[in-house]
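Dear all,

This email documents one entry for the complex benchmark we are building for the journal club exercise. For each entry we list the sequence lines for every component of the assembly. Then comes the predicted three-dimensional structure of the complex as a token string, followed by one or two observations. Please use this as the template for your own entries, and keep the labels exactly as they appear.
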Amino acid sequence: MPAVSEARFSVGAGETLVLLGENGAGKSTLMKVLAGVYPLGTYAGSFRLDGVEAQFRNVREAEQNGVVLVPQELHVAPNLSIAENILMGMLPTRFGIVDRAKARQKAKQCLDFFELDVDPDVPAKSLSASEQRLIMISAALAKSAAKVLILDEPTASLTDGEAEHLFEKMEQVRATGVATIYITHRLDEIERVCDRAVVMRNGAVVLETPDVQGRRSEFIRAMIGHDPAVDASLNRAAPGAEILEVRDLWVRGSSATSKPHVCGVSLSARAGEILGLFGLVGAGRTELASAVFGAWRGDVTGDVRINGVAGRPTSPGEGIARGVGMLTEDRKRSGLIEGQSVLRNISAASLGRVCKAGVIHSKNERARAESLARDLDLRPPNIDAMVENFSGGNQQKIMLARWMATDPDLLIVDEPTYGVDVGARYAIYERLRALSKDGTAILMISSDIEEIMHEADRILVMYKGQIAGEFEPGVSRRELMAAATGETHVPSFDAVPTTIPFKQEKQKIGVAI
Amino acid sequence: MNGLALSKTDVGKGLITWSSLASKQALAMVGVFLVLVITFQIMSDGLFLTPRNLTLLMRQGAIVSIVAMGVAILIIKGEIDLSTGSAVYLCGVAAALMQTKLGLPVVPTVVLTILCGIVLGAWQGVWAVVLGVPSFVVTLAGLLAFRGTGYYLTDAATLAPMSPSYTALSEGFVSIPMTYTILGAVWLLSSAYLLMTARQSHASTPVIPLVVLTAVIGVSAWIFVGYRGIPNAVLWVAVCFAILWFLMDRTAYGRNSYLIGSNHEAARLAGIPIKKYLLSGFVLMGVLYGVAATLMTARLSASTPTSGLYLELDAIAAAVIGGISLRGGIGKVGGALVGAALLVTIDNGMSILNISTFVQMMVKGMVLLLALAADVTLNKKK
């Protein structure tokens, strides 16, 4: 099966085209063809650049001709300097020796374009995720006179504030006459940054629209091929007994001098409730959750009460035994166990439940994994396949299955739909809702404001390690963002529907161009 | 998945592929094995495939087999052991001292030798796991220090002789009737197990495994009965293998070991107590030091200063050849056994052909390189 079978579209100078589609729809593959990652001869068909047929044999040729791809995964070398990262592969040299002064100057130019006030000589790891994304874009632009800029899910790891920053910079790039192809899963961004949309499904372009306003449901239908499931938030259960109670929790790093990540947080979560925890990256949400689960390596003080039993778990094993589960944020690093089968991944946190005297009862284990895979609609439903062969959405279903197998009373899900396609996303929301109805307390950490607003029964916002506010589901985006960014007073027009402020901004930009 | 409009994907669909029966690497190994055996058989004018020579081959391979299984488990957990040769030597010194200087009976000697191994394993485990020094470095230190300790204790002299009953631990044979009984029991139990698991998973009768099992038992019977029965050294290996296979394949301990080797952080967050598993891995390795040292001292009826030299390299090579990936989390204990068999076959065959040991080392080096290259190319990450 070819990954892309029929695709046809165009994009003009100074235009931003959004390319939509579920994971596996062929978006990235198509973009890799344009960028020379898949060289001439591995594909059929043709594409033209400025009216001339382009035939790239490698990435470098594509870059020289002005087609630049910024991939979804950042290829940042954390310990190298910012300048070295920007100029990777094209460091200026004199007589074979790196010309530091020139490298510094070139890097500074790139940083100035995005008004990033950082020292190009400090290690890249000192930058935030959005700044890293920006330096990679500026690096891409620096390589040649870019004509086509392809951004593959640039906001997947960014918070809304950081994404907004990126969008402003994208407008600057667009103003220089660059055609941008923008891949995203976050439908709320489209109206903000894009002019036209192309939707792909199963390797083919299924929808092309001349504008993007008010077409969200149309896009979702085109992406998944049918109407999405009914909004799960309609059938909320009444919250029951208190499962988690946290009082005055402080979380610090392992060294004595490090500043606290969480400063005196108190909160509680009830059975049958999805408690949303919103905030920017670095607000201390993950650290708080890790401390409750027992996975935090540093110093923790404060009272934690789980299921009425006082005491904080001191290891993940103890956390699981006390009825806590935690779906971690970084699936690849701390969730998936690659090289092992789905079965083994699902059983990882609850093997003891299918063991007798330490010996695995393989029939029970398989039956349990198969029923979970069916329940979550794992595709393909093969529990003996290796996890790395599944799409992002299905990998996340496997991770959810791992925690469902532990039968938790409190399930913490940290960015549960990060890098997950639309279809699987609804499946995961449905599952979480069903779990909460069955009496599980769910603590959902998310930087996705839509997700928090739609899926949570109650929303806590964290800012700089503290709870900055508690909200009901009907809250406006502005209020949530204001709390998450530490703004003290909320402007009075926050009752205005969410799309309007963005439309106004958009028109402003239209005049500027 | 990644190619665009590639046309080769439908080839082989619906056929029973070889890879569904066994890993590609295992099959490649069987191929190499057959070629070697046939070559040796022809070139030695039929001396290689005789019960006498094959029995000798197995006795030669016992020590490296046992150590290789332990190293395989450590590699699966994501650690490594470079000290095995020296550790086995030092345990052997302890055994020889107990036999020659203290005159201890056989059983206490064996028990104390294993205890000595456990101490060495635990020592390295504490450094590697509790203090977090990379096991590569810890066991490199062990490689030097353990042999040094042995030389210091003995002035690098040979300690001999052991009592005849001690020597028999490795060099004795199971009587012929007993050999028949053991082989018959193994055949019965294994077939029953195969049929039972097939019925449980509602699969058809496992014809191919049954045929292979019967063939292996038949050939074993021919070898052992054709000479003097099952060598005791082979029994040690069989018992160790049975225990370790069960441990790694059927228990939660084994399963979690694989998970730790595949993704340390994810395993920790799934509630698996990593340190306990790693520490116990080194202690288990220590038990195997003791067993290997007992076999080595018994086989030579002495502790010699060169015993165990390069054993660590043979053991790691055997594990890698047998499909244990150095990335951790991949491979089977049985693979290490097959890898050890291949190495010993090369040793034995080339000795029969009077090829110098220098050339043997060159050939083994090349085999190790080929096995690693096969690991890299066959298990390439997609």
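Observations: The radius of gyration of chain B is 22 Å. Chain B touches chain A through 32 residues (CB under 8 Å).
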